[in-house]
Amino acid sequence: MMDRNELLGWIGVVLGIPGLLLLIAGKGSAAGAMGLLLILAFVWFYLRLNEPPFTIVEVSKVLTFRDVTGTDASMRRSQTTIANHLATEFWIRGISSDGQIENILIDGAAPDEDVLELGRHDLCKRFSHPLKPHTQFLLNVEHDLRNSFPGTREALLHRTDMPTKLIRLEVNFHSGRPLRS
Fold first, then answer.
1. Can you give the pTM of this predicted structure?
2. Does residue 135 sit in helix, strand or coil?
């Protein structure tokens, strides 16, 4: 079963092929040019409609341990993102930890919305005015982690659910708890 976007793409191809053939054959060059323009318009709309809402240019996450035991840490996330369509808000999904997550800030303020479900935070940043398509913006998220890394073997994960060009993960260990390979 074809979805709406695939159907529009096929309609553009079916309508454009006769026009393209007329253009190539040299008969009715105006009709051929119109057919070619129609194909190009459908392809452009098809690609535009299928763009994801956002593209992440770069994400940088810095985990800093503030004590030797790993029970007190902070996470700072800075990301540069492009709005591919008109945007009024941006969601950061899936922030979770084995311990507690506290003092969550987005750009220095409390999130506009924090949905906590099964220990996972989904955070919303609403923009003061809608972002136009292809607008690039910087977003900073920070929070404290309590009792999240008590073991000798731990993991730091990052999940992407939208196109992401670059991810940087940095871990700063407390001087009393050096890294062991």
1. 0.73
2. strand
Q: What angle do CA 46, 90, 92 make, to 5 degrees?
A: 115
- Enter the tokens of residue 29: 């060059």
Q: How many other β-carbons are positioned within 10 Å of the β-carbon of residue 181?
A: 2
- 111 Rama class: left (phi>0) / alpha (psi -120 to 50) / beta: beta
Residue 128, token pair as written in the block: 């003061």
**Complete DSSP assignment for 44-96:** HHHHHHTS-SEEEEEEEEEEEE-STTSSEEEEEEEEEEEESS-EEEEEEEEE-
Picking from 109, 101, 108, the residue whose alpha carbon sits closest to that of residue 149 is: 101
* Selected residue with higher pLDDT from 1 and 93: 93
- Tens of pLDDT, residue by residue over 60-105, are 999 999 988 888 999 999 999 999 989 999 999 999 988 899 999 9
Q: Give the separation between CA 141 and CA 76, rounded to whole angstroms.
A: 6
